[in-house]
Amino acid sequence: MQRLVAPASLHAFARACFSAAGVSKRDADWSATALVESDLRGISSHGVMRLPWYLRGLRTGKINPAPQFRWKRTGPVTAWLDADDAIGFVSAKEAAQYAVELERETGLGAVAVRRANHCGALFLYAEWATLYGMIGFCCVNTHPALAPPGGRRSVLGTNPLAFAAPTAHDYPLSVDLSTSAISRGAVIEHAHQGQRLPEGAAIDEDGAPTTDPHRALAGALLPMGGAKGYALALMVEVLAGVLSGAQVAREVGYMFADDGQPPGNGLFYLAVHPDRFIGQEGFVDRMGDLIAEIHGTPPASAESPVTVPGERRHREKLRRSREGIPIPDGVWDDLALLSREHGVPLPEVWAVLE
């Protein structure tokens, strides 16, 4: 069974829970936005199902509810941030905004962040630059979950990356991908729903292929595309981890463990404006031509037209904004527990689906 929940009410619920955990009003509001936006776009693996984990992180000390950001301007177009183990949504947003400001001042903005914490779905931050007509790129290194080709244990994180570019449409071109064959969040979601994993996505603790999400969590994920995904994960490890001075590889702690130890991971963000090259108008025009060419590709199935990255998420947001965000029973039970713990009313339910 699923409940279709009002997006604004779900946001208010998450914001109130974060506030009850000691997060500032501003940071609680953005953190709730990050979770609900993920649910609205259909990325439920990074939505409110993770709210209990972030609240537990705030309680155990993995997340600092009142961080003191330390910025250092390291060059004309670069900056470095020690995020003081802040909630990762805020670390990433601050990096994106500062990179945008650097770009407006100097023509390019690059920010490296240490102690960034878990940032949720990265498309939000890559798309942040497009609000200013810019191209955004963001990547983050994470707790080891990925086994290198030929290996039997994890050494790198799923190390997601995101890229977004402005278009003439009402949505940007928006790429958000994990370098693993399946994200860790999706594995957890499969476990939640009692579903098997696709073949070739994971190995168990003995290094044998598995489709059992529980055994995959005890073992390791496999890189997408074999050696190519592994190379991308390593690239992200260098940009987000080594370059920022953050923890790397097996040094990175697990965000959702109850050990009270912050993960210590890093983030890298880059913003650039088309005006520095072809110009804004020329860029958007050529993006329109590119997207039209892709849309014009004959589809393999008439029921599945060819799209560009970010387009389906945009359509899903429009639909869920009208119809409500689907919340499975297991996640609803978690929210009900948080409601009792924090004295926060449960979100408004628009409909119940059997």
List keywords for this structure.
oxidoreductase; single chain; alpha+beta; 7-stranded mixed sheet; 2 domains; 3-stranded antiparallel sheet; globular; Ribosomal Protein S8, Chain: A, domain 1; 16% strand; 354 residues; Hypothetical Oxidoreductase Yiak, Chain: A, domain 1
Overview of the molecule:
The protein has 354 residues and is α+β, with helices and mostly antiparallel strands. The protein folds into 2 domains: 2-60 and 324-353, Hypothetical Oxidoreductase Yiak, Chain: A, domain 1 (Orthogonal Bundle), CATH 1.10.1530.10; 70-180 and 223-276, Ribosomal Protein S8, Chain: A, domain 1 (2-Layer Sandwich), CATH 3.30.1370. It is 40% helix and 16% strand. The protein has helices at residues 7-20, 25-40, 51-60, 88-106, 123-130, 184-193, 213-218, 227-242, 280-295, 311-323, 329-342, and strands at 2-5, 70-73, 78-82, 109-114, 135-140, 161-165, 173-177, 202-203, 220-221, 266-272, 325-328, 349-353. α1 (7-20) packs antiparallel against α2 and α4 (88-106) runs parallel beside α5 (123-130). The relative contact order is 0.18. The model has no long low-confidence stretch (mean pLDDT 95). GO terms for molecular function: oxidoreductase activity.
